[in-house]
Amino acid sequence: MKKVLVTVVIVTALAIVFLFGCKNSSKVAEDKKIKIGITVYDQYDTYVSELVKCFEDIAKDELDLVIYNASQSQQTQNTQVQKMIDDGCSVICVNLVDRTDPSAVIDKARKNNVPIIFFNRELVSGDIGRWNKLFYVGADAVQSGTMQGEMAAMSCITDKSIDKNGDGMIQFVMLEGEAGHQDSIVRSENSVNALIEAGIVLDRVGYAIANWNRAQAQTKMAQFLENYPGEIELVLANNDDMALGAIDAYDAAEIIGSDRPIILGVDGTDEGLKAVRDDKMIGTVYNDKEGQARAMFRLAKVLALGGDISELSEEFTVEDGKYIRLPYAKVTAGNVNKFMKK
Ligand code: BGC
Which domains, ranges and CATH numbers included, belong to the chain? Predict the structure, then answer.
């Protein structure tokens, strides 16, 4: 009898272990099976590719990822979204090619009940309101422009030699991102406003759209250098790649040291941070890719598992139940190492 009892106890214990063990491992297997799709507007965009790399690093052990490049075609992106739906993606992260034209993406998603996390390229509020399973992860463009302008102003106030011709005004050029992008005009306007508010008198000698692109920025900057030799004291670029393009133009023209203007960007890309460390750029504004990638990862998991977005509230603020915006940060030579280690 005792023997039977012992056997029953052992069998029960084994069954419990087995059941719990199974439950846990099937949970892991279930999570592993969550398939998340991503489509980016252009895989050659430095910032977007660094952001997606962060997302991959965070998510690859837990989620099955499929990543597409829309190569600047909204049509291609719409087809990719359909393919990801057909392939069983539970959630799709969309970096829109044309932020004013998300209709096809939204219609497909809603028809198949697949939530969408838009990121980095913000759709207008009328569109995001079209369905309750549409979200946006990004940052606040106003803040990036203001921070850039404040850093530029601080340099002009503390280092009078920046005003090379001593006319009491700062001659500057603006290198602007893609027309129609939510970050372009807003960064330019707020950067200039912050400088003016700090009491800096500005004289704009040039303005050019260089579409976030380093090579285009170099070409535009080379033109400015030809037209206004020795006159430019400040370069404000809407992103680091264009700031680096401006530096390339100075390198190519063999203008060195104090004959160069101060140059500022936005993003804190790997190359941008190196330029700040090496004193080629006076500062940049960190566009928190780790934070945005983490927000996308957490949101994607919650949506895929049918959870509630309130689960994110300890880590992120979700505005209007739809928007997660990570704060920017000022980067100068003084604190650049902290960002390089991220
Ligand atoms: C970044 C740019 C990037 C653009 C792409 C902006 O937020 O600052 O570097 O090219 O997003 O959408």
Answer: 33-139+289-326 (3.40.50.2300), 142-286 (3.40.50.2300)
